[in-house]
Write a structure and sequence with these properties.
The chain is α/β, with parallel strands linked by helices. It is built from seven helices and seven strands; from the N terminus they run E-H-E-H-H-E-E-H-E-E-H-E-H-H. Strands 1, 2, 3, 4, 5, 6 and 7 form a seven-stranded mixed beta sheet that branches. The termini are close together.
Length: about 200
């Protein structure tokens, strides 16, 4: 598997870096300096959907990094959680993680994972994938035990959980691609990288 063009992943997310590396893709990782709150506020005011907002965030990250790496094909990605129209961000502290998981308990929610590619010519591809997850009606004692077990790792994802670890015990049903849930829809992204001449056919 040979990388034919420089690839940059515009993220600080360790899980996205691990996903791309595990797929055998050579890349640099550069975190963007995009102010997400400004984009989210503008998107809400414009009546944009959660998926559209996630894509705008991914585009902003890719464009920001591509300006500094004009030689590269830049991957921008973002993920947003939608609970009946309410948008969730990463919890700011353990009390917020408790509140979020309590709100999600026993209900379905959607994760919208957006990914885009930017080259010197601008955006060359974009994609939004959605997964629907249903949390089981777990007890208060289970929730407290879960948060004790994961600690501040609960602050690293928009839902306060990691499906690839003990967080799977929170769920009753999961409908969607595993990579989408982890925040980087890998199979469409790899296809797009091949189409853009960045990976060997």
């Amino acid at each position: 598997m040979k990388t034919l063009r420089p690839i940059v992943l515009a993220t600080a997310s360790q899980s996205r870096r691990q996903l791309l590396a595990a797929a055998g893709v050579a890349f640099d990782a550069i975190a963007s300096d995009v102010d997400e709150s400004v984009i989210k506020t503008a998107s809400k005011a414009a009546g944009a959907s959660v998926g559209e907002t996630a894509l705008e965030l991914a585009r902003a990250k890719a464009a920001s990094v591509q300006a500094d790496r004009p030689d590269a094909l830049v991957i921008g990605a973002d993920q947003m959680l939608d609970l009946d129209g309410a948008w969730f961000d990463k919890p700011v502290d353990m009390a917020a993680a408790h509140r979020q998981l309590s709100a999600l308990r026993g209900r379905p929610h959607a994760l919208h994972s957006a990914v885009t590619l930017f080259g010197p010519e601008g955006e060359v591809w974009s994609h939004v994938a959605t997964a629907v997850l249903v949390m089981r009606p777990f007890s208060d004692a289970f929730l407290a035990g879960y948060l004790d077990a994961v600690g501040e790792d609960a602050l690293k994802s928009v839902g306060g959980y990691f499906l690839e670890g003990v967080g799977v015990q929170l769920f009753e049903r999961v409908d969607g691609d595993f990579f989408t849930i982890l925040g980087l829809p890998m199979t469409p992204l790899l296809s797009a990288l091949r189409a853009a001449g960045a990976l060997s056919e």
